[in-house]
Write the structure tokens for this entry.
Amino acid sequence: MFPQLNEKYGVKFEKLDAAKHNRKDFDCGVNALNVYLQQQANQDQKRNLTRIYVLAENAKIMGYYSISGHSVSRDTLPNDIKVGGYYEIPFLLLGRLAVAKRYQGNGYGDALIFHALKMTAEIAEKIGILGMIVDAKDDDIATFYGKFGFKRLTETKNRLVLPLSTIATLL
């Protein structure tokens, strides 16, 4: 399901390193995602607001995603994943995800999601979270996330949730 990553040739997942990774040439076709990576991601990471993970071939960024802590109101969760006792439920937020245009359509978006899901499962072993949240930019992107089992929250059109139980079945 996921493309083979050949670390022998320098293709691997890494935390964004502004001194190593070439951010200025990244182009996914969405200006807001390009500008975020080029101008804001490193600052957000330094301030501990998020972590940026890149899929890179040496210095060339093929794709990236951001991940950070977040909470969601219990009342907005789908009925099949509601939990009692707490009003705010802890999740990880998959904030941004983008694949450079030249790599799109080859499964690298799936590989980025899979890496983020593995990261979420690892973090869930260390701290209490219920799963992952994502804000899809539009219905097409929401459909992309839906193929992994993400479900829409009740009060927002494109905010989706994926519980740890579903993540475990995907991994």
Observations:
- The mean pLDDT is 87.
